[in-house]
Amino acid sequence: MATFRFELVSPDQLLYSADVESVVVPGTEGEFTVLPNHAPLVTSLRSGGVILVNGDRSSKEFAVFGGVAEVTNTSLTILAERTTPLKEVTPAGLDQEILTAQTFLEAAHGEAEKRLLHEKIAQLREFKDVVAARQSG
User: Fold this and answer.
1) Strand runs (DSSP E) across the chain, as ranges?
2) Are residues 24 and 57 both part of a single domain?
């Protein structure tokens, strides 16, 4: 099967790099799957799971909390604001993230900042539902 280069980068280091068959990405406009020869695009990311597929050999899952994805026909690079292995994400941890965002929302002054924080809270709640469903199933 054809592959492409995937790199997961934090603000200060390369976290993961491998040739993969496909990657599910949590874009702000919705989840999408990147395959070899994908059309180029750049998109911002919402909080969610990044799932790498390498056929029967292996798959990996990461949680990202914001960032940017750049897709070319030969690669996908995710620059994540923050990331952790998806298996380490818990509903209780996401509740804490939501509480922190709500605290920032209460202190926000501008409408643009308030709108972004409302979106972030909604994304975190959606991600929490996904994590809870995965853990119960």
Assistant:
1) 4-10, 13-20, 22-27, 30-34, 41-45, 48-54, 58-64, 67-71, 75-80, 83-85
2) yes
If asked whether residues 78 and 12 sit together in one domain, one would say: yes
> Which pTM value belongs to this model?
0.85
The residue segments making up the domain with residue 113 are 90-136
Sorting pLDDT into bands at 50, 70 and 90, what band is 56?
Answer: low
Instruction: Report, as an integer, the average pLDDT of 35-49.
Output: 94
Cα 36 to Cα 72: distance, rounded to the nearest angstrom: 9
For residue 88, what is the DSSP state?
A: G
Distance spanning both ends of the chain, measured CA to CA: 30
Considering the domain architecture, whether residues 43 and 97 belong to the same structural domain is answered as: no
